[in-house]
């Protein structure tokens, strides 16, 4: 498979009983697929993975895999701190329908590049699905150089996807330096999405807040309509920057921005959480209008985008 496109990483919606709201999660999955997602991903920060124990994470992986039912590819982040833990979790994800897994590096400062290659390689050799590594030299304690990525891929060919969340200049260097060995997906909400595409990136793993518009941007770029794609990006950028200021802010306001589009009722939150302010909700209302304006564009995507933006 050639992995590419927009893979929204799902929010966690909670019920009043403190557990995941299955109906809301199913609504989210169906909305994303109906609005053009090329795949779905779970267990990033917007999934509130830091608020779940391992059993809850496994339950979510299985539940979403059942909801997707093979309609689109499925990617699962694996962040267990040991190779044994990552192998077990990755195998469980594959059994639940994951087509590829995203391995996070162990949270140990000072880990050498050789040790990191050994860590990722040991996990990759033990699973039967394609593997991505999360390489974020800006926010993670350890990362790989372009040469390290090439060495990793040559020794372990099923490691052929990269989730690169650093600065676009660093991602471009990794793409060029790894000689096309990886399908590179960006993150950070798509704040530098056009730069990622220009450097040869394969796609984006954002929150689903701007899904219809970002799907349109991706398809326009592939069709050579770069000016139209850039116009949509410029219109969305203030909202993307607002949502990217902090994880608690994104979980507060980004989730509400998305829920309004997908007609999902936020019934409860899992502590600790940030409560919205009246000012913040006013900003979200303005961003919703920005999305509606952004998708009123000419071309084959206009009708579907306008319908999606109206919720």
Give a quick set of tags describing it:
eight-stranded parallel β-sheet; globular; disordered C terminus
Brief sketch in words of this structure:
InterPro entries: Aldolase_TIM, DapA-like. It holds the Pfam family DHDPS. This protein is α/β, with parallel strands linked by helices and 311 residues long.
What does this structure look like?
The protein has 311 residues and is an alpha/beta fold. The protein has an 8-stranded parallel β-sheet with strand order 1-8-7-6-5-4-3-2. Helix 2 links the parallel strand 2 (40-42) and strand 3. The two termini are 32 Å apart. Residues 306-311 have low confidence and may be disordered. Helix 1 packs across helix 2 (54-68), helix 3 (83-95) packs parallel to helix 4 and helix 4 (113-125) packs parallel to helix 5. It has helices at 22-34, 54-68, 83-95, 113-125, 146-155, 168-177, 193-198, 211-222, 226-243, 247-262, 278-294, 302-309, and strands at residues 5-6, 40-42, 74-78, 100-103, 130-135, 159-164, 183-186, 203-204. 49% of the residues lie in helices and 10% in strands. Keywords: Lyase. InterPro entries: Aldolase_TIM, DapA-like.
Binned, the helix content reads: 40-55%
N- to C-terminal separation? 32 Å
Number of helices: 12
Uncertain spans? 306-311
Number of beta-strand segments: 8
Q: Which of globular, elongated, flat, extended, rod-shaped describes the shape? A: globular
- Beta-strand content bin: 5-15%
Q: Kindly report the spatial arrangement of strands forming the biggest sheet.
A: 1-8-7-6-5-4-3-2
Task: List the secondary-structure elements in sequence, H or E.
Answer: EHEHEHEHEHEHEHEHHHHH
Radius of gyration: 19 Å
User: Which structural class do the helices and strands define?
Assistant: alpha/beta
| Biggest pleated-sheet summary | 8 strands, parallel
Overall pLDDT score: 90
């Amino acid at each position: 498979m050639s992995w590419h496109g927009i893979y929204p990483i799902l929010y966690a919606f909670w019920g009043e009983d403190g557990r995941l709201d299955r109906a809301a999660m199913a609504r989210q999955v169906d909305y994303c697929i109906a609005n053009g997602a090329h795949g779905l991903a779970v267990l990033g920060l917007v999934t509130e993975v830091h608020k779940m124990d391992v059993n809850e994470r496994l339950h979510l992986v299985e539940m979403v895999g059942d909801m997707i039912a093979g309609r689109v590819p499925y990617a699962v982040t694996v962040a267990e701190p040991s190779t044994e833990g990552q192998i077990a979790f990755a195998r469980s994800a594959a059994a639940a329908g994951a087509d590829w897994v995203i391995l996070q590096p162990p949270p140990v400062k000072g880990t050498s590049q050789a040790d990191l290659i050994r860590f990722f390689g040991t996990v990759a050799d033990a699973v039967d699905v394609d593997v991505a590594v999360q390489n974020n030299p800006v926010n993670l304690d350890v990362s790989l150089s372009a040469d390290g990525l090439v060495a990793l891929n040559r020794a372990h060919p099923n490691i052929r996807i990269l989730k690169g969340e650093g600065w676009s200049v660093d991602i471009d260097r990794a793409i060029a330096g790894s000689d096309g060995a990886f399908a590179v997906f960006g993150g950070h909400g798509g704040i530098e999405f056009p730069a990622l595409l220009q450097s040869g990136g394969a796609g984006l793993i954002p929150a689903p807040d701007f899904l219809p518009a970002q799907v349109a941007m991706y398809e326009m770029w592939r069709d050579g309509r770069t000016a139209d794609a850039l116009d949509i990006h410029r219109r969305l950028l203030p909202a993307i920057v607002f949502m990217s200021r902090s994880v608690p802010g994104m979980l507060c306001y980004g989730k509400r921005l998305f829920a309004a589009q997908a007609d999902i009722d936020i019934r409860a939150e899992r502590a600790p959480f940030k409560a919205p302010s009246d000012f913040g909700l006013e900003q979200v209302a303005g961003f919703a209008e920005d999305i509606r304006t952004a998708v009123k564009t000419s071309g084959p995507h206009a009708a579907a985008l306008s319908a999606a933006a109206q919720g």
